Amino acid sequence: MGFIIGPWLAQSVRAAVDLNLAEHLAEGPRTAAEIAEAEGSDPGATARFLRACASLGLVATTGKGFAGTETLAVLHRDAPMSLRDLAASQSTAVTWLTWARIPEAIRSGEAQTDKALGMSFFDYLAAHPDQGALFGAAMASMSAPVIREAVEVIDVSGATTVVDVGGAHGTFALAMLAKHPGLDAIVLDLPHAVPGARAAAAERGLQDRLTAVAGDFFEAVPEGDVLLLKFILHDWADDDAVRILVNCRDAVRPGGRIVITEILIDDQATGMAPLMDIAMLATAGSRERTLAEFDDLLTRAGLRRAAVTAVQPPYFVIEAVVAA
């Protein structure tokens, strides 16, 4: 039953985000009536929903109403590792309608976004800027613990320019700039993502060191010493992934490196990795890959693996250089 009612749980978390429960309860307990008044929601339905949230451990009942829990706290917009945007993004139509076609994805081995949404996943995000912005924010929050560890292991000696390829709001690039004061950064992404990257840089006072440019990594990649590819290659089938890597090979300066941050999967994988693999099948017709499969992509692109380092499970940092 826990598996079967999974959709109920996900949409309950989404409703908790939509009603701003974490924010309302951050300073102490509040009654259902107080939350309903603040949100303009139906008082009776709000009380029933809070009762359901208590059964899930999102809130706790007290003599003064409902109190937040540690579980709810990660849905607060200001939490250090907030999952608010991810919870909202993963329970909206762009993901929900595609996941509803998982059986068809498995039978056909093909992405289902065209059938579910009428267009490809990324075309849909571009056509719906609000969803594109939410997805970018969600990927930033999902990336945070991985980036925090990745910036500690990436060697930037001799580098002056980092390029965040398909970097959305530039979260990875900004973390690299904060860690290494001598670096500048370029974020490359589709036009709908550029304003978010510029705003994120300005918010952190790094707008003078970060340039956000609109472009297509299938066409060209800006020149740099360290090229970052975080959660990019798993979006694409092998031939497309090789095209991206070839453009990165052409853009990396002599002595530079291409840094790939992705899940590594194998037949014994557990937890999120195998489920993410199915998500990539349904949304993009792509896959998570084994280390051997990454090596094959690199070889086809005229690159070779120089190092691989484990970071936040199940993610790894793969460093590649131009093959001799």
TrEMBL record:
<dbReference type="InterPro" id="IPR036388">
    <property type="entry name" value="WH-like_DNA-bd_sf"/>
</dbReference>
<keyword id="KW-0489">Methyltransferase</keyword>
<dbReference type="GO" id="GO:0008171">
    <property type="term" value="F:O-methyltransferase activity"/>
</dbReference>
<dbReference type="Pfam" id="PF08100">
    <property type="entry name" value="Dimerisation"/>
</dbReference>
<dbReference type="GO" id="GO:0032259">
    <property type="term" value="P:methylation"/>
</dbReference>
<keyword id="KW-0949">S-adenosyl-L-methionine</keyword>
<dbReference type="GO" id="GO:0046983">
    <property type="term" value="F:protein dimerization activity"/>
</dbReference>
<dbReference type="InterPro" id="IPR001077">
    <property type="entry name" value="COMT_C"/>
</dbReference>
<feature type="domain" description="O-methyltransferase dimerisation">
    <location>
        <begin position="7"/>
        <end position="62"/>
    </location>
</feature>
<dbReference type="InterPro" id="IPR016461">
    <property type="entry name" value="COMT-like"/>
</dbReference>
<feature type="active site" description="Proton acceptor">
    <location>
        <position position="234"/>
    </location>
</feature>
<protein>
    <submittedName>
        <fullName>O-methyltransferase</fullName>
    </submittedName>
</protein>
<dbReference type="Pfam" id="PF00891">
    <property type="entry name" value="Methyltransf_2"/>
</dbReference>
<dbReference type="InterPro" id="IPR036390">
    <property type="entry name" value="WH_DNA-bd_sf"/>
</dbReference>
<dbReference type="InterPro" id="IPR029063">
    <property type="entry name" value="SAM-dependent_MTases_sf"/>
</dbReference>
<feature type="domain" description="O-methyltransferase C-terminal">
    <location>
        <begin position="99"/>
        <end position="303"/>
    </location>
</feature>
<dbReference type="InterPro" id="IPR012967">
    <property type="entry name" value="COMT_dimerisation"/>
</dbReference>
<keyword id="KW-0808">Transferase</keyword>
